[in-house]
Structure formats: C-alpha cells, structure tokens
Amino acid sequence: MALIEITEETHNVILDLKYATTDNFTNAPVYTNPHCYLHEEAEELLRNAIVLAQPFGYRFRIFDAFRPSEAQWALWNHTPDPEFLADPRRGSPHSRGAAIDVTLTDENGNDLDMGTGFDAFTPLSHHGNMEVSIEAQKNRCLLMGIMTTAGWDFFRNEWWHYQLFNARRLPVFSDTTLPNPMMA
C-alpha cells in the first residue's frame, strides 16, 4: 500500500481529526482509532505546502486526510449530499488517500478566520463567496495560494478541501488494508 502516516512530529502539523470526535456534522465519532494517512504523492505535496507556509509563520491544522471507504459510507448514509460529499459508489478522493482537509494556523496554533468552520455544508463555505468577511476571504486566498502552489487541486464548494489532480486514477482503500485500522 502507498499510504504514509502523517504525525505532528514527522510533519510539524496539528492533527485535529474531527471524525474521531463528536465535533463533526454527524455529531458522533466515525473513527475509533484515529490516524492520519496520505497517499505517497499527496504526502509529498503536503511537505511542499508545509515548506511554503513556514517562512510566513503558518502551520497546518489537519481535520481529515485518508478516509476508509467504510467511513465514507457512514458519512454518506448520514447525509447523502453530493454538493459536499462524494458518493461512495464512485469513491471519494479521501478514500484514495488523495485528499486532505486543512486550515492554516498562526505560529501559536490559532486558526486563521476562514468565515465558516470545517464541514459547514453551506454556500458560505464555497471558494469566492463574497458574504464572508474580507479577512476570511484573504485567508482563504492565502490557503489556496499555498496549497495550489504546492501542487494541490481544490474543491470549489469547500475552502478546507484539497486533493490530487486526477485522484480517481488511484484505488479506493478499505479500513482492513491499514496497518492500524481506524474503524470499530
């Protein structure tokens, strides 16, 4: 398998895996044994983004990365909304290890204002939404600039979601393929 574990120590990021908590749109943990993995190509792009953000005093808070196909089904069964969730029958970029949900923090670990929280399934979460504050718009542009310069593609409906170009060329991974399964 071509998934690499991302840790706070190895990547100088803040892990805040929301689907291991009740602080997500399902209001229940989806992962019982949270780990953060990315496909090796995506892990390389994350490293690029980290290098680009560091001189400006920014770090990344990671909300989600690889999402086992079983977790994608759990999310879809809760809220089958194709505007914000990939239909698990097609496979999500997350279930390929090819997507990451992030925000930027300052050097003290405080999140930059992005206008909405993570997983706010509303048009306010869309890139280019002019109804969020000017500061939030600037921060979203900063995040997008760093991520796209590092080689990531973005999803227009979610300011926090970035993925590999042509992510669907990669296989979907199940929880059973992980060295440390994440699901119950």
Describe the protein's architecture and organization:
By secondary structure, the protein is an alpha+beta fold. It has one domain: Muramoyl-pentapeptide Carboxypeptidase, domain 2, CATH 3.30.1380.10. 24% of the residues lie in helices and 14% in strands. It has four helices and seven strands. It has helices spanning 8-11, 40-53, 69-78, 134-149; strands at residues 3-5, 14-15, 37-39, 59-64, 99-105, 153-154, 161-163. The strands form two sheets. It has a five-stranded mixed β-sheet with strand order 2-4-5-7-6, with helices on one face. The chain is globular. The model has no long low-confidence stretch (mean pLDDT 96).
Q: Per the principal axes of the C-alpha atoms, what is the gross shape?
A: globular
Strand order of the largest sheet: 2-4-5-7-6
* Biggest beta-sheet profile: 5 strands, mixed
CATH class: Alpha Beta
Strand composition percent = 5-15%
How many DSSP E strands? 7
Number of domains: 1
How many angstroms does the end-to-end distance come to? 21 Å
Mean pLDDT: 96
The structural class is alpha+beta
Function: Catalyzes hydrolysis of the D-alanyl-D-alanine dipeptide.
Keywords: Cell wall biogenesis/degradation, Dipeptidase, Hydrolase, Metal-binding, Metalloprotease, Protease, Zinc
Active site: 158 (proton donor/acceptor)
Enzyme class: hydrolase
